[in-house]
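Re: How this chain folds, sequence and tokenised backbone to follow

Filed under: protein folding, tokenised backbone structure, sequence and structure records.

Contents: The amino acid chain and a row of whole-number tokens, matched residue for residue.

Body of memo: The sequence and its backbone structure tokens, given next.
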Amino acid sequence: MKTKVTALLAFGLTLLYLATLTTAASAQGRPPGIPDPDMDYSRVDWVNLGCDGKVFVCPAGDGTGISISVRDANDDPIEGAQVVPFFGGTCEGCMCDPISVFTGPDGTVTMSIYGGLNASPAPDCCAITTAMTVGGQEIPWLGTELPSDTREFISPDLNGDCVVDELDEAILNSDFGTSACRSDFDCDGLVELDDLMTYSIHFGHECESVAGVEEGDGGGPKLASLEQNSPNPFNPTTRIAFTVAEAGHVLLEIYDASGRPVRKLADAWMAPQRHEVVWDGRDEHGNEVGSAVYFYRLKIDGKLETKKMVLLK
């Protein structure tokens, strides 16, 4: 696979059990009172795989999941065992809570994968290796004795920022009519209307950790509104206005129709008021950009909002 490798998938997490472990139990990597898991009886398997056995993930967790069964040496279920996932692969991405799960009274638990992938700029799918551990031991996958499973992942969050929005639509549109694996959600070899429909179903889905906090919980700055640029269409300049409800760090960026960054218009701490910036139709290097559809995205402490604009010369 010819996917550009920039780093191990950002999912990679290293967690141990509970902060309240006793010294003896901690040495064994398990909470007190929980027996050792037996890997001859414990198993892990996929739930709701996508087409061609691909793992379909979404920031809302409404795609493929992982089913885990943890049992002891007598083949009895272990309740309260903490299971931790590990992901590593050929592209970057995002992973949202939960980053670990606990087994129920029957010793089982199903974990949804709340995440997104960043396969761009290559149109390939991501090849991801998944392992599940309990007490520091890797659980074998059902039907095998293998401690990990490698397969292709796909996601409507095509740029791996943990929100499905217009930037992902721009990537999908650039793949439309091609065989790009990353956007071929039904695995029929062609990116077409059915794939656009799949994207539309998930549009707006985002992780709670990315979406920010609800009003009134005292958790930090909230995005009040991002206004439509004016004029629109424009040539060569346009104004972009937005309101910040509470002081916070603000990032305003321009992207082209393929999802590539064009210009950073704001990257600073801003006061709680209405702000307005002007884009002069130039990129980060001062070069004039051509007539096209562009996206501008506002981010305040993890809260994202995106709108579309047209430069028409």
